[in-house]
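Notes on consecutive records. When two proteins share a document, each keeps its own sequence and its own token line. Never mix them. Below: protein one.
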Amino acid sequence: MDRDKIQTALSLIYKDSTIHWGPDLSSYEKFVEFWPKENGAIPTEAEIENAWKSQKPKDDAINEIYNLESTITPRRIREMTTADGAKWVDDVEKLIAIERAKL
């Protein structure tokens, strides 16, 4: 289990987590070793995996929204004065709405 997966899951399981990440927290075993007692019970690998899996579709949707929004450049905005340009931007906005509905 990698560090990013553990960190993402912890932010979902323990909203007020005070764990501090260091270079040695690259595995579940190291994570357990450094878990602050004030955070309570140590989440199991299964809890971390489930929390990470539940967040992944949202993260994917946010990334796709970012990618779609980044395609609307100043050039594309200038092209909105044409029917084709306006239709293209409308189509991108529809795709963004689909992704936002996933959140």
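Protein two starts on the next line and is unrelated to protein one.
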Amino acid sequence: MVNYSGTGNPGWTFTKERMAQIAIMFKFLDKKNPQEEFNYKKFQNEIDADSARLDGSKVRMFSPWFTRFGIFNKTKHVKFYGELFTELGKRFSEFVLLYDVVKNGDGEYTLEQVKTVDTMFRAFMYEFFKNLCKSDKGDLYIELKRWLAELGFLSKKEFFILTTKIKNSYSDEWFRGQIKEYRNNEISIDLKNIKDRNAFGYIIPFCVEAGVVRWDNREDKITPAYDINFEGVTEDGR
């Protein structure tokens, strides 16, 4: 019998609240002298003292993922605040402040302006997705795109067959067999018994934000986002 599981430390999604918190962090960093010595622990303590909406725990949550997304350089190699952001990160820090203003503008921006910001947001998410695929967390995202291309869709329970495959280094043949058996009603999966099942609620929404997949809750289907196109992305979403 297979013990199906999700994945630990699945990350987070760029919700409106998260973007507001990121904007606070970036405003704090913008005030720093680029030549000031960077100390990760001191950075957390200063954030704690500077903002009621942000604390050291959020910094610890954001920072490793900012590195995976390509926003931050690896903090252990950063000597000065001016070295913290990558070039992509510098562009994103400027965008986050724009996003924060437009999304909290109380209707003072046109629908076209809001759509432009949404398109820019999606483009950044796609860049982050590409960088994430090269990181220590990349296997799942690469495998997800690969199997969606082969199978056409995955259900929520089939997503956990995939995470179980990756976690245990099971073969492609094992995965294909599991999918076939599940779709033929030869095996059953109880979501309540899956360890780390909250992984789905972070990983799939991020992939949706990046324009890589679609998720239809009613149909219970993750599908490739073939029809989404924007600057930097081909028509098939690859």
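For the record: The two ends are 35 Å apart (CA to CA).
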